[in-house]
Specification:
Elements lengths: L10 E3 L10 E8 L7 E11 L1 E6 L6 E4 L4 E8 L7 E8 L7 E2 L3 E4 L25 E4 L6 E9 L5 E13 L2 E5 L4 E6 L8 E4 L4 E4 L15 E7 L5 E9 L2 E9 L5 E6 L1 H4 L8
Antiparallel strand pairs: 1-2, 2-3, 3-6, 4-5, 4-7, 7-8, 7-9, 10-11, 11-12, 13-14, 14-15, 15-16, 17-18, 18-19, 19-20
Length: 279
């Protein structure tokens, strides 16, 4: 996984207390400037093969992040950790024709969530009645106008990943979804001038779309709302509001990797006169 950031990083080079196993060198644990609940781990293995970081809050690993690169140099984004918690991390290398190499544990302590609206109160927890896994959702607190915020919650409702688009309030119905195994799409009803984005799990944009217009009015022509996703062919699909002669229509647009419209469908041609009055 590629990782880029212009922000200064705090880098812990594990010279003291580093694993005694000579299978690993050049070990670095890097604080992620985009997310206080994750870190980036870099290491060089003695032999070429897939690498992994296993981690847990106790003496045994509970989770793992892995790469598929058959190389000696590895860089992995470790996500899934709770706020202000000390974890143990184990470096793992699995060469094709040699036994698995595993380091001694390395301690890493996560930071605090930078905004209070991700500190949730759990009212009920019945593990036997839950589907295993984490939940990706958007967050809106106390208002239908709120900064676009995505969060991943573990099974006990504790945040283990987050991303806030900006501090400017947008509408609460922001579209947040996985766009593959390692990226997250955030778009739809964003604040004025915020673009839809596809992020890697380190919080770095891998695609940035067109900016939201100034949505100071409820029915702003050209406003992107509700729907945003990456398509199977690599393009992106958005939903725009069009206002004509007092009527509001949705226009579906397909964008290419450059953010240009390559296909669109306007509701006016098929929906004129087909108005349903709801009781």
């Amino acid at each position: 996984m590629r990782w880029m950031s212009a922000a200064p990083l705090a880098v812990l080079v594990l010279a003291l207390g580093c694993p005694a196993d000579s299978s690993f060198t050049n070990i670095e644990v890097v604080e992620n400037p985009n997310n206080a609940l994750s870190c980036i781990v870099r290491f060089t293995a003695a032999e070429s093969g897939p690498g992994a970081v296993e981690f847990g809050a106790g003496d045994d690993p509970a989770f793992a992040v892995r790469d598929r690169l058959k190389d000696v140099d590895h860089e992995l984004v470790v996500i899934g950790m709770r706020p202000e918690t000390t974890y143990k991390l184990w470096l793992v290398s699995t060469p094709d024709f040699s036994p698995e190499a595993r380091s001694e544990p390395i301690e890493y302590t996560t930071g605090a969530v930078p905004f209070d609206d991700l500190v949730l109160e759990q009212t009920a927890y019945v593990a036997a009645e839950m589907q295993p896994g984490w939940t990706l959702t958007n967050v809106s607190v106390g208002s239908n106008m709120y900064p676009a915020t995505a969060v991943i919650l573990d099974q006990e409702g504790v945040p283990v990943w987050y991303h806030r688009m900006s501090d400017t309030p947008g509408r609460a119905d922001v579209d947040v979804r996985m766009c593959g195994d390692e990226t997250i799409c955030i778009g739809g009803s964003l604040a004025s001038f915020d673009p839809p984005v596809e992020l890697d799990l380190a919080g770095n944009p891998v695609w940035t779309g067109p900016a939201q217009p100034d949505v100071t009015n409820l029915m702003t022509p050209g406003e992107m709302h509700h729907h945003f996703t990456r398509m199977d062919d690599g393009g992106y699909q958005i939903l725009r509001l069009q206002v004509e002669d007092g009527w509001a229509y949705d226009e579906v647009e397909e964008l290419d990797e450059a953010g240009e419209v390559v296909w669109s469908w306007h509701g006016e041609g098929d929906l004129v006169g087909k108005v349903v009055d709801y009781p």
